[in-house]
Structures are given as C-alpha cells and as structure tokens.
C-alpha cells in the first residue's frame, strides 16, 4: 500500500505513519518528492484497514496496490481453476449449462423438466428445495423431500445437482444430495455460513449479492477458500440499480472483470438477472460472448403455474432454442458447449 502525505506534512506526522506501518510488520520505503512525501509499505496488508491511515493527520490519500483477497486472486494463482463434478468440468473449455426449475415442486414436474434439459444438453440440474423468499407467506420449498426428488431425477438422466443451502445448519444435509451447494445472493455476506462452507468438501457456487461490489464478492469467496474449500464458483445474477423494468440489472461486465481479477470460474444467471422470460435468451448469449464458464437457467414445463419465479422461467422449447444458439456462439470464442 501507499500512503501519500499532504504537501507540507510535518516530520512528526510522517514519523507517526512510518511507526504505525512498522508496528504492522510492513517494510517501509519513504520517498521525498518536490512537493510531498510518499510512503510505500510492502508486506501482507490484507488485514490492514486503510481508513486507520486516512484519518491520521497529514495524510492526503491511502491506496492499496495489492488486492485484499489472496487465495481468490489471479496473482496467487495464474491458471484458471477447474472444478470437477464427476465428469463435468467447470472452468475448462466447455461452457457448462445448469438448468431446471426455480423450485422443486413435485417429482413429476422435476422429472418432466429434467428430461427436457438433459436432452437439450444441460449437464447439471438446478432446483431449490430451500427457497429464500422475500415474503414469509410465499412457497419456501419442499425441504428434504425436494432434495430427494432432485437426486433421484438427476441420477435418472445422468445429471449433476446444484441446490441452495440457506444456512449453516443445512450444509451437511444438502451435501448428502447435491454436487454443488448454491449460496444465494441474500447470503453472500453471511460470514458464519461462509466460514462453515470453508470446512465443507462440496463445491460452492457463490452468488453475487444484489448490492455487492466485485471486491466484496471476491472477499466472500476468500472466506470460503481461507477455510480450506478452494472449489468455489462465482455467479453473476444481476444487481439492484435504479432501473425497475427488469427485476435486476444483469452486470455482464462482471464476467470479464472477475476473469481478470480471479482464477475462479464464473457462471451467469440471466433468469434472476432479468426476471423476464423473453430476456433470458439474449442475456445468455451475451454472457457466453463475454466469457462466462457456465450458465444457470430456470426452465419450467408450466411457468404460468410455477410456485416461484414463473415470469422468468422459460419453456422447454425455448431452452432448446437457447442451447442451439449457444452451440453456435461458443465455437466463435474457441469454446465448446
Ligand atoms: C434462485 O436461484 O432461484 C435464487 C433464489 O437466486 P438468488 O439468490 O440469486 O436470488
Ligand atoms: Mn429463482
């Protein structure tokens, strides 16, 4: 990090900063320019709170040169992380498609949808058995019976399973049925949950919080990784902006930004990302074009009667079309699907 002093800062003020950096066991390099002094600090600054220095007298500006997350950063690991779930590899050449209903509603519904998405080329079945809902009166998922349905149906069609755990108490249960645990947007900064996921051995897909910066998102990934679980996928699912036409504003730029800052695979969710069925296909195309390693798509056989997120769930026929378009786009980018 770098501490730039104000022009005319006193020797005493400079010494106070140098001492404070020394207390943090950082190597200090002072450089006296024509108008002001700049102090460089080298070492592990990930635990340093910049504002502690910003408020010191005589300090003009404090900048962090290195990123505060380590394990998740490209500096720590240059090569892309590839997460293997059986024979499905996420983060490698192939763009992986996860698809299924927002919520598991019944065995029949899940089987009907799974059969269609598997046939179209999806390799991972999505579906919530524990649903975070804005209203306490909305359908909150089938719980464990829902997990059983997901596993049974996925096995029947040779699919892997991704499903959400909503808190620490559900990690063991969900791990017994799922191949990937989804952490919902509303839980991105549930730090006790993230720490516990660090001790799990199941891959985790961490959704971006609806008001989270890239750095906050990567810091949340760091929580899981620092606990020992390095199998983390990131998922852009739209953020909240002043726009109300779409449910969220899907931040396509997150894809290339995260790819540069981190070696972790990134998945795009155009369903939560737009909230509108007819916008899912164009945003899925955009996500693949921008370099996403995977997509997660809500598909329903009867979206008008879905128990959650019907408006953004596409029909199986629309999913077929989506897959066929993506199969044309992926090779242009040197990828397969
Ligand atoms: C979902 O995937 O259905 C979901 C609830 O996602 P999010 O946490 O992104 O809102
Ligand atoms: Mn949903």
Describe the structure.
This protein is an alpha/beta fold. The chain has eleven helices and 14 strands. The protein has an eight-stranded parallel beta barrel, surrounded by six helices. The longest helix has 17 residues, at 316-332. It is elongated, with a radius of gyration of 23 Å. The two termini are 42 Å apart. The model has no long low-confidence stretch (mean pLDDT 97).
Helix-strand blueprint:
Elements: E1 2-5, H1 11-23, E2 27-32, E3 37-42, H2 50-54, E4 59-63, E5 83-85, E6 88-90, E7 96-100, H3 107-120, E8 124-126, H4 144-156, E9 160-164, H5 171-177, E10 180-183, H6 191-197, E11 204-207, H7 214-226, E12 232-236, H8 254-261, E13 266-268, H9 270-274, H10 277-289, E14 294-298, H11 316-332
Parallel strand pairs: 7-8, 7-14, 8-9, 9-10, 10-11, 11-12, 12-13, 13-14
Antiparallel strand pairs: 1-3, 1-4, 2-3, 5-6
Helix pairs in contact: 3-4, 3-11, 6-7, 10-11
The structure holds phosphoenolpyruvate (PEP) and manganese (II) ion.
Phosphoenolpyruvate binds at residues 102, 128, 132, 184-186, 207, 237, 272.
Rg = 23 Å
Q: How many beta strands in the DSSP annotation?
A: 14
The percent range for strand residues is 15-25%
Quaternary structure classification: single chain
Strand order of the largest sheet: 7-8-9-10-11-12-13-14
What's the order of the H and E elements? EHEEHEEEEHEHEHEHEHEHEHHEH
Helical amount: 25-40%
- Low confidence ranges: none
Mean pLDDT: 97
User: Which molecules are bound besides the chains?
Assistant: phosphoenolpyruvate, manganese (II) ion
Main pleated sheet: 8 strands, parallel, barrel
Give the overall shape. Answer: elongated
Structural class: alpha/beta
Number of helical regions: 11
């Amino acid at each position: 990090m770098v501490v730039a002093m104000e022009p005319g800062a006193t020797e005493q003020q400079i010494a106070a900063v140098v001492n404070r950096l020394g207390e943090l066991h950082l190597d200090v390099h002072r450089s006296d320019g024509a108008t002001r002094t700049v102090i460089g600090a080298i070492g592990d600054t990930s635990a340093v709170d910049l504002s502690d220095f910003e408020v010191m007298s005589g300090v003009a500006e404090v900048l962090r040169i290195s990123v505060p997350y380590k394990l998740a950063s490209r500096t720590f690991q240059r090569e892309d992380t590839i997460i293997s779930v059986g024979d499905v590899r996420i983060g490698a050449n192939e763009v992986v498609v996860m698809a299924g209903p927002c919520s598991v509603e019944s065995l029949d519904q899940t089987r009907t949808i799974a059969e269609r998405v598997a046939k179209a080329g999806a390799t991972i079945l999505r579906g919530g058995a524990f649903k975070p809902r804005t209203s306490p009166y909305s359908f909150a998922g089938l719980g464990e019976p829902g997990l059983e349905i997901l596993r049974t149906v996925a096995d029947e069609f040779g699919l892997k399973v991704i499903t959400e755990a909503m808190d620490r108490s559900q990690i063991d249960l969900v791990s017994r049925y799922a191949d990937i645990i989804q952490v919902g947007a509303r839980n991105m900064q549930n730090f006790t949950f993230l720490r516990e996921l660090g001790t799990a051995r199941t891959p985790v897909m961490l959704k971006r919080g609806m008001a989270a910066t890239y750095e906050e998102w990567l810091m949340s990934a760091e929580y899981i990784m620092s606990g020992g679980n390095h199998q983390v996928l990131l998922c852009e699912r739209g953020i909240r902006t002043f726009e109300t036409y779409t449910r969220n504003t899907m931040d396509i730029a997150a894809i290339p930004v995260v790819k540069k800052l981190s070696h972790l695979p990134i998945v795009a969710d155009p369903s939560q990302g737009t909230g509108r069925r007819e916008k899912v296909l164009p945003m899925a195309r955009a996500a693949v074009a921008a370099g996403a390693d995977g997509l997660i798509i809500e598909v329903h056989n009867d979206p008008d009667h879905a128990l959650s997120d019907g408006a953004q769930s596409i029909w199986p026929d629309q999913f077929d079309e989506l897959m066929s378009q993506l199969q044309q786009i992926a090779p242009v980018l040197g990828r397969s699907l």
